Amino acid sequence: MPNRFTLYGNQLSGPTYRVGLMLSLCAEPFSYVHVNLGKGEHKTPEYLAKNRYGQVPCLYDGKQHFNQSASILQYLADTLGKFGGITPEERAHIREWMFWDFDRLAPGIFRSRAAARGIRKFEPPVLALYKAEGEAGLTVLEGWLGKHEWLVDARPTIADIDVYAVAHMAPAGGFDLAKYPHVAAWSKRLCALPGFGTPEQVLPAESRA
Length: 209
Ligand SMILES: N[C@@H](CCC(=O)N[C@@H](CS)C(=O)NCC(=O)O)C(=O)O
Hints:
Blueprint: E1 5-9, H1 14-25, E2 30-34, H2 45-48, E3 58-60, E4 65-67, H3 69-80, H4 88-116, H5 124-145, H6 158-167, H7 181-191, H8 199-202
Parallel strand pairs: 1-2
Antiparallel strand pairs: 1-3, 3-4
């Protein structure tokens, strides 16, 4: 039987990892289409018909394409009945963390990492600003995780999956997680969940059916 979901993405992409990790934690096998960003495959008319933003990831369920990784996580949580919020309050707190992630945590960490890998170039004051934003985001996370086991209530949710996909890339962006012991301990808890995998374990480097 063909897989229910097809993920379009790139192994080096944090937002793609977010979705691949969710599928893996949900024990949901998926087909995978590697999108070569270097070759501009995300800007072709064929791909833009699936993802109007010209970005990865994109998830296909056999009928529709879904875009924006945080929204895809929410869709998967609703569809698969795992890692989502139950009450409206819980769902609101999950969204809070995901919106905050894209606003305050991901930009500083992803851009610092892209600069460290030589994928993007920034003037030193701009890079220093991204570094400072990343540190400020990790400080907020550290404060919360010093008092809570998971981001929302007492169990892992898509908020943890969303934020982890960024936090685990912090060292590659030059951030020292030894300064954030509660973030490091939470990461360990998440890595111990059944179905957990690194980006290389969860996302193939090439397409697979
Ligand atoms: N908000 C988007 C961000 C996705 C994103 O930034 N993807 C990058 C790869 S990590 C991309 O496709 N970059 C190419 C571009 O934006 O042109 C999401 O969460 O899905």
